Structure formats: C-alpha cells, structure tokens
Give the backbone structure.
Amino acid sequence: MTRIRGARPASIRKGLVPVVCGRNSNARLYSPVGAGQAREPMGRANSLHGPDRPRLVVVHPRRTAPAAEADVHLPVRPGANPPVLNGILRELIVTDRIDRAWVDRHTVGFDELESTVMSYTPGHAAELSGVAAADIQSAARILGEAEALLSTVLQGVYQTHQATAAAVQVNNINLVRGMIGRPGAGVLQMNGQPTAENTRETGADGDLPGFRNWANDDHVAELARLWNVEPSRIPHYAPPTHAMEIFRYCEQGSIGLLWISGTNPAVSLPELARVRAILSQERLFVVVQDLYETETTRLADVVLPAAGWGEKTGTFTNADRTVHLSEQAVEPPGEARSDLDIWLDYARRMDFRDKDGAPLVKWHDAESTYAAWQECSKGRPCDYSHISYETLRGGSGIQWGGERLYGDGRFFAGPDECESFGRDLATGAPLEPVEYRSLNPDGKAILKAADHLPPDEEPSDDFPLWLTTGRTIWHFHTRTKTARAPELQAAAPEPWIELSAGDADRLGVSGGDLVEVSTSRGTVRAPARIGDLREGTVFMPFHYGYWDTDDGAGPDGNPRAANELTLTDWDPASKQPLQKTAACRLSRA
Amino acid sequence: MRIGVAIDDLASAEGRLAEALLELGERHKADHDVFHLSRTLARWAHAHIAALEPFAARYATDVEAGDLGREHGGPLHMLREKGAELLGRRPEAGLLLLRDMRALHLLAAEASANWTILGQAAQAANETELLECVSRCHPETLRTMRWALNKLKESAPQILTT
C-alpha cells in the first residue's frame, strides 16, 4: 500500500485547492496540542480571506467552519465517502483532467481504478452519498483545473465506514493529477497529534520500528541485529495485534494483564458499557499510566503517575515530518515519572536480556534512547541519523526526508523496502509478498481501487437517524487536560446533541431542550443544539466522560459520553474503530 | 455441452458458502469483525448466485437464487446470537472460532475451484459473457477464502498458546 505523508502546510499559497475531507480543520488548527499546525495555520485566516484566495472543497456531513468557507461543500451522508470520491475520480478521468504521462511513469493500477470508478456516474454517486450530482461535478472541475492541489484527511474519514478505502481515494485524486512532491501539491494524511506520527514511525502502535515490514524477513533480521536477539524473538508470524483485538482477547480471557499508557479507553473507545465491563473483570489486571485521574484510572488495579510534556525531555514529529526537541522545563510533581523512566525501570526489574546475556535495553535516558532510534531508523524512509539532539539544539524544527519527500516521484514502495504489502481494503487480509512483487515490482505508487459497500449499521424503523461523533475546538481527546484549563472548560463546559432544523421541527425540539439519543448500545442525554448539518443526521462531541462527575468512572444514571452509543466495529485495513456511523433515535428527555 | 453441470455445482457451493457465512456471524457475534464482515461477504456470495442465474437458464439448469431476503431476527437466529454473546466471553469461543473459520475456508476453496472449472469451460466454448461473469465474481470468492485463512493465521497463536 502506498502510504503518503508529509507535504508541508507552509507551502499552501495562491492558486491552490485544498480538499478537506471529513475534517473539522478549524478544530485541529487551534487545538493546543496541534503545535505544528498552529504555527503554520492552514491559511484560513490569511489566504482564504486575502486577494488570491485558494479555492476550497470540503467533504463533510456538517457545515463546519471550513465547510462554510468552501467553494463547494459536499455534505456527504455518514459512511458514504467512497462513492463521492469515486464519482470525482470518474469525472477527472472522463473529462481528461488527469496527467496520464505522470500516471504511467509513477503509478500502477490505473486500469483497475478506471474500471472501478466508471460506474460512479454523478447520478449514481449522488444516490449513494446524498450529495447533489451537480456539486460532485463542480468539485471535480475545481480539483481538475487546479494548478496545485493539496488534500488533507483526518478522523472524519479514518473513523467512518470504509475508512482506508476512502483515504486511499484521496491519495488517488492527487496521484492521477500528478499533484505530489512539489510546492503546494501533496496529501496530508493527518495522523492526529504530533506524537501520533512518532508512534507510527517508532512502532509504538504495534508495527515494527522504522516502517519495517513484518512480512519481510530481511527487515526482521535487521531489527534482530540491532537489538541483538534471535529473529524468532520478534513475533512476525502474523500482522500486529491491534487495540480493538487486544480488548477482544481481554474480554475472552486470553490476556491477563493490560497496561494502558496515556490514553483513556473508558471514554474514547466505542460501546463504553462493554469497555467498562472488560476493564472491570477480576481476571484482568489493569495498569494505567497517565498524568491525571481519568475514567480509566478509576478502573485500574495499579495507577502509575506519569510526567507531562514540560516535565520531561523528548522529541515530537509532526505529520509534516518536522522534528522538534522539547526539553524538560520543570520537575514532575510528587511521585510522577516520565513514561520512559517507568519502562526502563520495568525492563530492569524484569531483567530482559539479549542473546548474549547482556541487558536487552542498553539506553538509559531520553538522549541515549533517541541515539538508538537514530541508528534504528538509518536507511529507512524516516531516517533520523542526521538529526541529533545537538543538531536540534542548534535550531529545532528539522524535517526528516528533506523538504520534498516525493520530489522525484519515488514512493518507497519497492517490494524490498515497503513497510507493508498492503491489505484487501474490504476484508483486511494482507497481500502475500509474491502478489505484491508481481503487482508492483518497480516500487511505484499503487492506485488502489475500492467499491462502495453498505455500512455495517444503517438507520432502521427503530433507529431512523444517523449518529456521527466528533470534536470541538475547545477540547482535546477526553478533556483530561483541556477541561483542567479554566478558559477552555468555560468555553465548552458540557456536551450537546446537534440536529438539523428540519429534524428539530419534526421532533418538536428547540435549542436548549434536554434530549435523549439512543442506539441499541445505550442512551445519552444532553441539551439540544440546532446546527447546520444534513437532515437525518445527529452529531455529538465525544470528549465528555465522567471524571469530573460524582461517579468518576461511569454514567451512574446520567449518561453523557457519546461512545455509550457507538458500535464496536473497525476498519478492516487500518483497524481504527468506526465511531462516526451508527443508527440512533432522538426524542425530548 | 455440460456447462450447466458446472454452473449447478458452483451455485450450490456459493449457496453453502453464503449460509455458512451467515451462521458464522451469528455464532461469533462477540467477535465483532467476524460478525460484520461475514454479512458483507454473504452478500457477495448471494450476488454471485444471482449473476449465474441468466447463464443457468441459457444452459438449462435450475439455479435457485440464494435466499436474498433472508430475514434476520427469526427465533433461531436470535437464539444463536444471544448464545454467542454469552459464550463469547468464555475462552472456549476461541476454539470454536478456529473450527468454524477452517470449515469456511474449505467451503470458499470449493467454490473457488468451481469458478476455475467454469472459467476454463467458458474459455474453451468461447462464451465471452460467461467468462466476463467468472472474472468479475471469482476474485471475490478468493478474497473470502483469503480472509478466512488470514483470520486463522491471526487467531491461532492467541487461542492455542494462552
């Protein structure tokens, strides 16, 4: 699979056409942790309101702030991104707004893409997505005429039905137009906050470090050499086990110890009643490591207080590959220690050894750990070997891979270097190495096609409305930090349930009324807000849980966390939970 | 010509596959990926049977389209799902999953072999429409087969060594 990363937001300028897919980018922009993005805002304030305004296309079910600024806003039905994007791709192809010479030189899979998207006529795409056919054509015209095209994708796509399939079609739009690897042209697949990019590079999300491919024996052998262990000590007989599957194993009883660090699944995962039941099991020993008390620490057997970012030294890498050094400013309070200290101590106490009997972990602080990472990343796409602490102290903010990662139309996709042989986008089954080798022997970008599939849950008589969840600019994740900042907390103190004016009329709901939303998983209550979103769709922010309520861990008669309602389901390829497509009903409480 | 026989065999293999997929989903409702995906893949199998129908008529066999409108929510179905939700919290569910996925893999392999047979016959008889149908549908059956095999690969280590 071609994973595309790393255009530079700074290069958004005159004449560009950002496509924003399923992304309340305003919210991300000014989010306090989106440091890299805030420093170089997407140009909303300057270029969108300046004389040489770039044209903007937004695909999003809600009329978010960026959607309101857009030249074309496609208010897509939740879960129907692929038909819209396939419709746009078809328009680009039939109106000959593609760079065929570039496609032939740098990609594989065009014929299959073409034959897949051909059935997505504007009319058919409109029928499947609820977006007007003329709007799909207008969007395609803008994207097709752009001299420089920048696309960004975030959670709105990643946590919706057919997530990877849709994200890949955005890549395909840029690829068929040859819009990548030069100023103003590229794709920003936003992982999330800066540390989300780091975790992917280093393998902390379960993959192997340095984008090494678990199905490539040479990559595993290289890692085994670096760590001085036998290759068989590095499990690589199957894909890494993802978080949703780990929770399933806990539920089944085949995992007895779960260590959760710096996240709050008792609010952020779907179907919270199930998550609480899993974490509360007697047979599961739960360790939680966090800065503050959270809903999840309340369910833990052991809580390890961890240091915050200003209380420890380390580096951050943004989605645009920029590496920053963040030095410790103050001592952590009380017994709190940095995550690294906690794990180094754990490794010492467990007495982990390499194959010669020496301690497995040979580094002892942030800088020596980083030096080991530099060595580990050497020769991989994310090569940090030239970016030392010393270099960063001479001026933080250095991009790995240089300024243009794909400037020469090279995609790190050769069979011997790629990080993954890819997956079937519908079933998630990994491609076999030999299949990949014959598909893409020269390491070009893969245009991977995907047909529309109906969502796993759709509105019914009992639950006639779509439920989609999302974010507000005032809070990050589950508010464990932002609600402790008085200004942010005051700006958005409580959850709300947003519905369209048409639905509000029909259901006799006015703004401010206490309303109740139910799915087959649960019910929540919150004040109603009448918003500008698709009729038939209900929106709820997912940030709000219970740590600042009397119970502290769960609803105790006053359910307000959006994830009480969402269903346990995940994208077969990326394994991200699908929290933006569920069926619900709404009434006055 | 005996192409009708091959169509017959194929349609009944896809029918068994669809039935097995739906049952698999019901039996493993607590394995959410299996539950959701099994229904998507059963739709594929049903669509294959429907795609074969015109050819069955042409080559004079009597393919019965799968029970496309199969009602979810019947008493037997509910009982299975309820049982699966309860059993799903127990370790034995893992062994059952391995057994069921193995059986599914074999059913998909049988259907796939039948597609190969039909494809060969269509080429020899120069039946381009039939060949087009085979090349459109067969890859989906193969995807189902690979999914089942991959699920076995992923689950076996956890289920058998813990």
In short: Chain B has a mean pLDDT of 88. Residues 3-161 of chain B form a domain with the Ferritin fold (CATH 1.20.1260). The two ends of chain B are 54 Å apart (CA to CA). Residues 76 and 156 of chain B are 29 Å apart (CA to CA).
